[in-house]
Amino acid sequence: MEQHPRGVDRISSIPSVLLHRILCLLPIREAARTSILSRQWRYIWTFIPTLNFVNDSKSKKKRKKNPLYNCNWGQIIDKVLLLHNGPIFGFHLQNTLEINIDDIDQWVVFITKRGLQQLTIHCSCSGAPYKLHSSLFLCSSLVCLKLVLCEFQIPIGFVGFCSLKYMSLKHVYVSDEALESVVSKSPFLKQLVLEKCRGLSFINVNAPELLSFHIVGEFHDIKMNHSPNLKHLRICWDYGVPQNCMLNRVLKGKTKLQSLCLAGAYIEDLLDRMAERFLTTYDYLKVLNLSVESLCIDTIKEISFLLRSSPYLEALQLKISNDPVMECEESRILEIDVDMEAKYEIRGFLWKTLECDSITCLGCLRRVEIQSPFTYMEDMEIVAFLLQHAEVLNVLHIKISECENKDRQLRIVKRLASFPRASPHAKLFFK
């Protein structure tokens, strides 16, 4: 074992590049405090290429223990930027409650001239949204942009982000035109996240290199006619169904999809009988995540179509809400009476819809997660169907939701566990 003489500073012998990388992981306040370790450490923090400004000064305990936490947060950032040497590749600002908007403008102008590659601005909920300074749209080195509670407006003469690969907008005000402009003028954009944004109605995503698209919120329509390389897609709509949106158009041509998540009310309305419009096979789709209100006939048909179109599916996640307010007249709903159902052979309309293609559509399925209150017979049928036809199934996780009756839970668990299994390795886990 190698012996080190007493008094040797092993940490200071670490290469500067590695030290800078380590300090980049710390909030700037903690990184700056390393200057007291020794004379050698005094200015190391001024060379770190990534600055993490996390305003934790609201903690009363920290204010009492350390007077540094009583300082004006904006003044701290000003001083850090003044003392900083070298490029600034990353700038991450969180909690802007105590910061003047004009100060943020000055910082953005400053860092965009220092080789900025990653920018995060997370404004406070109680403060005014920050309107992005026009200088940001001239930053050709920007690779990653994350905005929360900001205002996104494209200046006249915007030519695009030639290096942008990742963009996340959460609770951001952005118009359809602004989003379309920045996406279409970012030729290397690979990941796009939109969550609860205001101002979006008709979303047009024109990004040939896009690999991942995640959208949560309220909108009317989505067009993705020029994203043939898309691998991961998540669409979650709020406040009912967008009447103009047809998922058959969104999914058409996306044959490289590896994971697909669809959530929101009335999935059958959004799919709009996509099985009758065209036939597309998703040979690369491995993960399918669906959240539906109930298993009415239309919903079952669309699930059937997606399963048949995904012959190599390995993981299925299905969440069934069964909202008591919702009613589907076409569905032959049966309230569960476990004693009577035990004598009844589970072979309803769901089986007739799916069974003919069960071998091809479930041939690779290994993992299933189902969350349901198991209020209706159809919820039981889907479990029975998957167990009987998924020949390589390893794990089936079942979560019985919204059920406080322990006796009813036990009876449901016993019935589900009694279904025959095609896979000798299939294990059921209940929660």
TrEMBL record:
Listed SUPFAM superfamilies: F-box domain, RNI-like
Protein name per Swiss-Prot or TrEMBL: FBD domain-containing protein
Organism lineage string: Eukaryota, Viridiplantae, Streptophyta, Embryophyta, Tracheophyta
FBD domain residues: 363-431
UniProt-listed Gene3D superfamilies: Ribonuclease Inhibitor (3.80.10.10)
InterPro entries: F-box-like_dom_sf, F-box_AtFBL13-like, F-box_dom, FBD, LRR_dom_sf, LRR_FXL15/At3g58940/PEG3-like
Superkingdom per UniProt: Eukaryota
Source species: Amborella trichopoda
